[in-house]
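Query structure, 169 tokens:
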């Protein structure tokens, strides 16, 4: 029979796990976003593609942000890109914290992140529906989101594994 003390301890332990996972997720999301950004920079150099201002356009549409000049626009663009990617690290770390690590956690995270982008951007009129994209564009977008998910997953799993080992000591 469970006592009130055991229930309180369980709740406290779960709250601590969630709080710890949030912190780990912020770090993991930041790592994943940095890795994805480097991959995007390489892809842009190889393809000659210009930088996207979609994060700025989303900030403008959702938050009413209006840049005064190109430098401000680029700053908002980069802040939104990193804030969005960093925030998505939190669910990945929660997956790792509560048992979905490795390929399963990364595949779940990739599906959520890429799926959200494919739904959200057309709903904000910031991109065409994926069904109207060229196959090469779909492949590049999937690859970049995959790189993000893998890097974020590796970081989240490593941080969670380290915390597990520290608790065993």
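Result returned for the query:
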């Amino acid at each position: 029979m469970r006592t009130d003390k055991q229930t309180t301890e369980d709740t406290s332990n779960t709250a601590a796990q969630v709080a710890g996972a949030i912190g780990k997720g912020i770090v993991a999301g930041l790592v994943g976003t940095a890795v994805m950004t480097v991959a995007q920079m390489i892809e842009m150099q190889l393809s000659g593609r210009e930088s996207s201002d979609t994060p700025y356009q989303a900030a403008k549409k959702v938050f009413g942000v209006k840049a005064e000049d190109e430098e401000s626009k680029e700053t908002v663009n980069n802040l939104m890109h990193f804030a969005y990617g960093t925030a998505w690290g939190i669910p990945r770390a929660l997956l790792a914290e509560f048992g979905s690590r490795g390929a399963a956690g990364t595949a779940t995270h990739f599906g959520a992140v890429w799926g959200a982008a494919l739904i959200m951007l057309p709903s904000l009129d910031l991109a065409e529906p994926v069904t109207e994209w060229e196959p090469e564009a779909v492949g590049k977008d999937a690859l970049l989101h995959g790189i993000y998910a893998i890097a974020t997953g590796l970081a989240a799993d490593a941080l969670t594994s380290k915390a597990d080992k520290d608790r065993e000591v």
